[in-house]
Every structure is written in C-alpha cells, then in structure tokens.
Amino acid sequence: MQISTNTQTLVCVLRSGSTVPKQQAMAALRALVVGIAIVAAAAHYWVAGGTATKGPVTYVFGDSMSDVGNNNYFQLSLARSNYPWYGIDYPNGVATGRFTNGRTIGDYMAAKFGIPPPPPFLSLSLADDDFLAGVNFASGGAGILNETGVYFVEYFSFDEQISCFETVKRAMIAKIGKEAAEETVNAAMFQIGLGSNDYINNFLQPFMADGTTYTHDQFIRLLVATLDRQLKRLYGLGARKVAFNGLPPLGCIPSQRVKSATGECIAQVNSYAVQFNAAAKKLLDGMNARLPGAQMALADCYSVVKELIDHPQRNGFTTSDTSCCGVDTKVGGLCLPDSTPCRDRKAYVFWDAYHTSDAANRVIADRLWAGMTTASAPAPAPRSGAPGPAAVPAPSPRRA
C-alpha cells in the first residue's frame, strides 16, 4: 500500500486462565518508566539543524482507544469519529478523530510525561522535523491479527503500523544519521494497545471465521504467536522499552452487556480477557529474558477499569453499565451526529458502546501513572499545559 504526502510518497509494506500477578506487572512498569525518566533527564534528541527536543520520544501503536486521527485520512473507512458528538469536550469542541468526547488515555499519559501527544502519522510530512519527537500510528479497527477489522475497509493493521514506523525510522536515519536514530529509538517509549478488536470484532462475531475455526485456547495461541513475531520485528527495528496495555474487562462494555439477558457483564468474555493478559505477560517476560536490553511490561488496565465499573460512585461517576451517548448498542454503537449525549458527561464511565469517556480516561491514566511511579527511584514529574503538536500539511488518504 502507498501513502502519499504533499512532498513525497511513503511506502508502508504489509508483511505477511489465571490472573496476571499485579505486583510483578507494576514492578516491571515502574522499572520501565524510571528508566525512561533517567534517559530523558540525561539526553537531548537532536533533530535537523541542531535543534534539541527534550522529553521522552514516544511511538504509539493501537486501535480506536489510541487513534488520534489517522483514520480521518481514510475516505472509505467505516471506523471514523471525525464528527459530532466526538470531541465535544476536547479543546474548542473539535472532533479530532479520537473515539471519545475529549482526550484519550494516551493524551493524559503524555501530559504526565511533560510532552504533547504524538501526532497521527498520516498528518505528517517526513520532509519536516515533526516526526522526530514521536508519532502515533494507532488506527481504529486494528487488531493483532491482520484479518481483524477487515469489514472497516480502510485502517492500519498492526503489521502495517509497524511498517509505517519502519518508514519513519528510515527518514530519521536520512535526517540525523544512523547512530543518532538508533539511540533515539532505543531510548524511546513504545506504547501498544491492541487485542480488544481481535475479540469484539473478530472472535466473538458469528460472521468472522476465527470464532468457528478455533477454540479459545487455540485462538490465544494464535494471538500470542502473532504478537511474538510483531514485537520481535519492533525489537529488530530498535524498540527496547515497550508498555503493552492489557485488555480491559471486555464483557462489561455496553456493546457486550446488551447481549446479556440480565444486562450484567458477560463473565465468559471477561475470562477471555484475563486469559489473554496472562499469556501476554508470559510472552513479555520471556522476551525480557531472551532479548538483550528489552524492557517490556504489561499495564494492568483490567483491574483499573473494572474498579470504575464495579464501584462508579466511589470513583466519581454515577453510571457504568451504559454509555453517555444514546447509541444503539446492537447496531454500530458509535455516537453519530443524530445521537443524544447525556447531560452530565463526567458522570459516565463509557462514552459510546465501546469507548471510555474523557472523565474515565483521566482517572485511568491517573491510576496507571500512580502504579508506574510508586517506587523509591525518581520518576518524571507531571507537567500540565504541554503544547500540542504544530499543524502540518495534511496528506492524501490511502486505501488499506
């Protein structure tokens, strides 16, 4: 597939049970974030012309929970959110392509690191320097498996996102030299949030083959084997510090609750998420043991989100069993312009049938950050008001 920009053509080639121990997971994340803090404090990331950019360079890979506008450039994509009521609580009330009413968890985490959220890959020109400070490759509809999300027509699969990062790295080498590019990538934070769509829009869908082809144990083995290959590919491109977001309690999101006769969470789907998280943690631990310099950790999103769902009142919410936006959870589930949002958007954990609200994203980021930085070693201090990325010419869209 080809991606055209104003100044050049880029090519991103598509290449073909038990709970996770929380203390171990948090310890790994603390080591990861402290390591990044030390690097950020000791080094500058040099760009063309001798200008230095302070702060950890971040590369984001993921699905609609992390997408900040890549899918806006796919004219045929059925996974877009660049219309009201999305973005109603974002600065100036703008629908940016984020699948929530305001900021994503990643936006809030970036602010805690004292950096602006990395801009979407498709908003950038590699002839400029903006991509040197970090890039967001996430795309709504993406999964670990390439077949996940095919009915959204246009999107970046995880393999394609990695190929786009490979394109970025080649451009970095051309701009700042191989040694500086390698050092920057080695020190960068790689944030990955994928796997939800492999269940919600693949394994659990009756019209998708994977749900009838594989047992769940077989499906997890397929997911983990694919993720193993993908993470090794990223490692080969220089990734060393990786934070992989564990799956949330998928059986409790509104699109799944509506399938329950009682309206309660679907226990089996939650069990699938727990089993996947355990398998993913085992994979990451194994990579840390085998790959020199690897620091890969699982973020325990499951427990954090489940706490908000089980106890909304004590976490500042009133409603966690349905979405703020009045959507048809059986068909679509997105907050379309003719939908009716709730009056008090801060009172709801979920914004639409699939995605958490701005208010919930803030709390989730706070909890994850607290778990990551509760250690004796110093961690980067939060800095509010980090400036947003500078505007750059928009490229032409491409087709997956």
From TrEMBL:
InterPro entries: GDSL (IPR001087), GDSL_esterase/lipase (IPR051238), SGNH_hydro_sf (IPR036514), SGNH_plant_lipase-like (IPR035669). Residues 375-400 are annotated as: Disordered. One of its GO terms (biological process) is lipid catabolic process. It comes from the Eukaryota. One of its GO terms (molecular function) is hydrolase activity, acting on ester bonds. It holds the Pfam family Lipase_GDSL. Residues 375-389 have a biased composition (Low complexity). The chain crosses the membrane at residues 27-47. Residues 390-400 have a biased composition (Pro residues). GO terms for cellular component: extracellular region. Keywords: Hydrolase, Lipid degradation, Lipid metabolism, Membrane, Secreted, Signal, Transmembrane, Transmembrane helix. Gene3D superfamilies: SGNH hydrolase. It is found in: Secreted. CDD domains: SGNH_plant_lipase_like (cd01837). Its main location: secreted. Belongs to the 'GDSL' lipolytic enzyme family. This is GDSL esterase/lipase. It comes from Triticum turgidum subsp. durum (Durum wheat).
